């Protein structure tokens, strides 16, 4: 009960912090409104989806360093196939890319389980493999995206300008995939192998299988993130963005303990929006974008350092 | 360690690979050179050998950073960035403040990166991979900001570095003048010095090392600072070799440096390996790369192959050490 309250205090604190930051944005630029919120949502969408994928793997006691590279593969695959395709075809392509994401994640998980090499080494090696695959598919940014896909994340929803479609898309997709899992036996297993794999194994949880599912879910969200990059820009991007460090930082800031077994998805998503709002505020204050990148990187490293200190303290009570 | 009465051939091979990684590695190197000679008859010459050495040396030096950090179970993914920053600072500052101060500033910048890495890893206990990735990101941002302010001044690559990077004496590259003492020092340090033994001790069992009185955080701080310093020196050498100051000079060497150390038999989990194998690993990678270029395999294919090699070698070592 106490842990439940504590977890929610953290999430509530993040929500308050986000609200304060948005108010500060309004003060910095009085004209900040629906269109600003919309561009914030669109910029945050790939980061948020990557963070959700990373959070699931971290909850299950792992880490996936190849997430940004998988996003690149999904982005270029979608963009190359959709270039000039009809609406019906592009719907099939989207389904195909999502399946590809599941498959890539499952390959990561299966390699970890079968080779018995630690997750951090396997996903580091797979980071290079997926990067190579993305470069083989598309050498330079290019391709196209179906107009209906691009319309899914741009503008407000049904005349409500203050509610960006990007946020609705994120909420619907995440809830549709995660909530049924969280309520099912699988959700419990994910948390179980994260908090103590040996205890989970002795209570009859198929540890290897659950781990592969966790990585496959991460791949699925990476594919969604990659598609959202293509949806936002209209082209495929073979060079992975800075999503790896950003997603780890957001997961840690969101209250998921590195090492597994604790935390939810709402906190990390709020954390993504906090980090993106900070970046946007720096831009609005007309800070040099490179300086803004340094500030952002420093914040992320500081967050991860803080998270590591907390995790170390937690391990030896 | 218990040996069964009749070890299977595979187990015996495993023992050979684990105890004497140099023997199969040199065999593999000779095999690759032979395949290269068959693919492209007449390629083997003194000039080719000198060229291969010249390309392999910066890689082998960056792989020294990976070898040393991997001995403790860590990794340093900021070496490419540290090398690039050192090279860029030297080239742009040399016309302004002279060559020796420029080199001093460049190496100081590399040391700062290492200190930040060391602080995060030793004191905050962040995983080295995440920490070094983060500092690389921040340092690249700083380099981009710096680059905007020096755009007006010219670029000067010091003569000594050009001599070291591109010159040849009796067909052999001059960079050996730097590399042979460097390699000897690293091998001596890891085998004979107290610091080297501490690295192995922490990598083999960190808790045991801590309980035996090792101040683990001091070792980590020194190690990552040293690693960045080596990367900075490599950046200077690489600047002389490539002869341009670019913002992504040594970044493509990040991944191959990890691959070279892993192929060379250094365990990515710590406690096992050595620099001798890494040097052979760097040579193998260089020959392999020239082979892939000859077969016109695109960049993407090369990355896939490197990733798979790291994975396969690590998995193989785990299997072999479990069996023996």
Describe this structure in words.
The complex is a heterodimer of chains A (317) and B (324). Chain A has 317 residues and is mainly alpha-helical. Chain A has one domain: ABC transporter involved in vitamin B12 uptake, BtuC (Orthogonal Bundle). Chain A contains 13 helices and 2 strands, in the order ααααααββααααααα. In chain A, a hairpin with a 2-residue loop joins strand 1 and strand 2. The longest helix of chain A has 29 residues. Chain A is globular, with a radius of gyration of 19 Å. The model of chain A has no long low-confidence stretch (mean pLDDT 83). Chain B is mostly helical. Chain B has one domain: ABC transporter involved in vitamin B12 uptake, BtuC (Orthogonal Bundle), CATH 1.10.3470. Chain B is 76% helix and 1% strand. A two-stranded antiparallel ribbon of chain B has the order 1-2. In chain B, helix 3 packs antiparallel against helix 11. The longest helix of chain B has 27 residues. Chain B is globular and about 70 Å long. The model of chain B has no long low-confidence stretch (mean pLDDT 82). The interface between A and B is large, with 44 and 38 residues.
List the helices and strands and how they pair.
The complex is a heterodimer of chains A (317) and B (324).
Chain A: H1 2-28, H2 34-59, H3 67-82, H4 87-115, H5 119-137, H6 147-153, E1 156-157, E2 160-164, H7 165-183, H8 185-195, H9 197-202, H10 207-233, H11 243-253, H12 266-284, H13 289-315
Antiparallel strand pairs in A: 1-2
Chain B: H1 9-19, H2 22-39, H3 46-71, H4 79-97, H5 99-123, H6 128-149, H7 159-166, E1 168-169, E2 172-173, H8 175-192, H9 194-204, H10 206-211, H11 216-242, H12 254-263, H13 275-294, H14 299-323
Antiparallel strand pairs in B: 1-2
Helix pairs in contact in B: 1-14, 2-13, 3-8, 3-9, 3-11, 3-12, 3-13, 4-5, 4-6, 4-11, 5-6, 5-11, 7-8, 7-11, 8-9, 12-13, 12-14
């Amino acid at each position: 009960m106490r842990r439940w309250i504590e977890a929610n205090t953290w999430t509530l604190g993040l929500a308050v912090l986000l609200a304060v930051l948005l108010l500060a944005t309004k003060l910095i630029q009085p004209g900040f409104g629906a269109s600003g919120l919309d561009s914030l949502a669109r910029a945050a969408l790939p980061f948020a989806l990557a963070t959700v994928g990373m959070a699931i793997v971290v909850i299950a006691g792992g880490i996936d360093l190849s997430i940004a590279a998988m996003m690149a593969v999904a982005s270029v695959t979608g963009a190359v196939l959709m270039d000039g395709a009809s609406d019906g075809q592009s719907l099939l392509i989207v389904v195909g890319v999502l399946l590809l994401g599941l498959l890539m994640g499952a390959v990561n998980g299966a390699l970890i389980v079968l080779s018995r090499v630690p997750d951090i080494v396997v996903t580091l090696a797979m980071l290079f493999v997926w990067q190579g695959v993305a470069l083989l598919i598309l050498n330079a940014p290019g391709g196209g995206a179906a107009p209906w896909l691009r319309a899914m994340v741009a503008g407000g929803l049904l005349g409500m300008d203050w509610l960006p479609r990007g946020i609705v898309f994120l909420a619907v997709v995440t809830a549709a995939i995660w909530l049924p899992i969280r309520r099912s036996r699988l959700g419990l297993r994910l948390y179980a192998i994260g908090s103590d794999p040996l205890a989970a194994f002795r209570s009859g949880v198929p540890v290897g299988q659950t781990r592969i599912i966790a990585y496959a879910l991460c791949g699925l969200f990476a594919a969604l993130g990659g598609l959202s990059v293509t949806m936002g820009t209209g082209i495929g991007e073979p060079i992975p963005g800075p999503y790896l460090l950003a997603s780890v930082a957001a997961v840690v800031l969101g209250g998921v303990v590195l090492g597994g077994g604790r935390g939810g998805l709402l906190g990390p998503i709020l954390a993504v929006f906090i980090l993106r709002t900070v970046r946007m505020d720096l831009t609005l204050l007309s800070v040099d974008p490179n300086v803004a990148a340094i500030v952002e990187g420093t914040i992320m490293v500081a967050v991860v350092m803080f998270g590591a200190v907390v995790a170390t303290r937690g391990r030896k009570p | 360690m218990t040996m069964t009465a009749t070890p299977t051939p595979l187990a015996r091979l495993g023992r050979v690979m684990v105890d004497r990684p140099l023997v199969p590695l040199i065999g593999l190197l000779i095999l690759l050179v032979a395949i290269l000679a068959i693919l492209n008859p007449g390629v083997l010459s003194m000039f080719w050998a000198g060229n291969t050495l010249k390309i392999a040396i910066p890689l082998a030096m960056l792989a020294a950073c990976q070898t040393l950090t991997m001995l403790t179970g860590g990794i340093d993914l900021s070496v490419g960035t540290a090398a690039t920053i050192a090279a860029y600072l030297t080239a742009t500052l040399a016309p302004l403040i002279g060559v020796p101060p420029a080199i001093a500033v460049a190496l100081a910048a590399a040391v700062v990166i290492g200190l930040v890495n060391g602080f995060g890893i030793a004191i905050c206990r962040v995983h080295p991979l995440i920490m070094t990735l983060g500092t690389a990101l921040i340092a690249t941002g700083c380099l981009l900001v710096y680059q905007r302010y020096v755009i007006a001044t010219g670029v000067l690559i010091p003569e000594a570095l050009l001599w070291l990077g591109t010159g040849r004496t009796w067909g052999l590259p001059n960079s050996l003048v730097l590399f042979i003492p460097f390699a000897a020092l690293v091998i001596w340090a890891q085998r004979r010095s107290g610091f080297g033994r501490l690295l192995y001790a922490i990598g083999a069992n960190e808790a045991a090392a801590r309980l035996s009185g090792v101040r683990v955080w001091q070792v980590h701080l020194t190690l990552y600072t040293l690693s960045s310093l080596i990367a900075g020196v490599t950046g200077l050498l690489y600047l002389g070799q490539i002869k341009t100051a670019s913002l992504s000079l040594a970044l493509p060497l990040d991944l191959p440096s990890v691959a070279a150390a892993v192929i060379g038999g250094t365990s990515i989990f710590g406690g096992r390996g050595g620099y001798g194998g890494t040097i052979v690993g760097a040579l193998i990678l260089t020959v392999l790369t020239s082979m892939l270029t000859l077969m016109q395999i695109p960049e993407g294919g090369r990355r896939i192959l490197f990733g798979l090699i790291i994975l396969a070698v690590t998995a193989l070592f785990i299997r072999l050490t479990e069996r023996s």
